[in-house]
């Protein structure tokens, strides 16, 4: 059985770069790695609905915190069997966003903290009811919200397929989300967390040795 490793953080934090670095380090050591990213916009109808709602389609769906959270959760439920198969076939399965993203953004939208009602509700829905595979480690790639926003804006200008959605363009929401992420990591919400400073160069060898394969 492989290890399930999740990378969490704000849009623009550098999650893709971190995932590539971890994958390269693991591959160099002879480990087999599978990866996925949520939401699966091109693979799952629930994620498609999320993308459309974020563009203002489907009436007031995008304004419903719980409605959007259910769609995000159903996307992951639909991927659960594939994740289990990947865990059987690979040494490491690396995810860009998972359940904690739903918890952090929903709480931030409702101006709640990590110990609030909506985080508890999402835990009951995705972890207890849907029985999603449990991560061995959750990595919070932490950067100041203004740094993440600047990176996301630059990416939007330079990459035609990376337009920010309404949540990613909401700087106060991103700041609140960063606070909830920090609270989740401090509490080792669901499973163990490690915090990585996304504003400095990451030593992938140390990260893999101390945490990913520990």
From TrEMBL:
Give the EC number: 2.7.4.9
- List the residue ranges of the region (Disordered): 151-170
A Gene Ontology biological process in which this protein takes part is: dTDP biosynthetic process
**Pfam families noted in UniProt:** Thymidylate_kin (PF02223)
Q: Which keywords annotate this record?
A: ATP-binding, Kinase, Nucleotide biosynthesis, Nucleotide-binding, Transferase
Task: Give the family from UniProt.
Answer: Belongs to the thymidylate kinase family.
Instruction: Tell me the protein's name.
Output: Thymidylate kinase
Q: Which organism is it from?
A: Saccharopolyspora terrae
